[in-house]
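tool=predict chain=A
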Amino acid sequence: MPSTRSHGRETHVPRRLFPVERDLISKLQVPKVIKPRPARPVRTIICIDCSSIVDATTSAVEVAMSKKTPREVEVELELPDALPAIVSGCNNNRVYLANDAYKAMVGQPVCPWLDSLPGAGASRRINGEVVLSVGAFSTTSHLPSIRCVFPCTARISWEREDASASLTVPCAVERLTSNCDDYCFIWRFDSEKASIMYCIT
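tool=predict ok
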């Protein structure tokens, strides 16, 4: 603190404070910008062979009915040990949901920038079109039972760049009894028992 002398006595003069402009913006953490890389979603076609389906109305097999809500289905299919699965509607073969395990099985691209999108889920894989065709390579063109869990065989095929792949896999189908027309069948694929064929074009 500066001082002056007056009549032989030292007097302290208070120091005047001046505001100092600080560049606080430059001190803020600069967010990391992730540049999206081009990624083409994989279109998959699922053909269901219904010839091995057992109709629960004419057999002694115990019928298992599920009353899971759509939210419960979504949570269950994203558990760490969940099988690759899709969910289709009641009145058509439209696919409304494919879980992350299914996307990984068919090689859907991983996009880290999906985390920055509002409402993004846990999956970093993009969604690709899934076409479900029941009875496409069998004589049966419809599901013989509407109130049961039944086994069948699925053939899943997709193309990526200059190669195509075809996967024949056991499938377990669960019928949902909720009032949601969009979520009626859960198709689970046992990828560990699958046979796969690649073709380079």
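Confidence is low (pLDDT under 50) at residues 55-63, 136-142. Strands lie at 3-6, 9-12, 44-49, 85-88, 95-98, 130-134, 149-160, 163-175, 185-189, 195-200.
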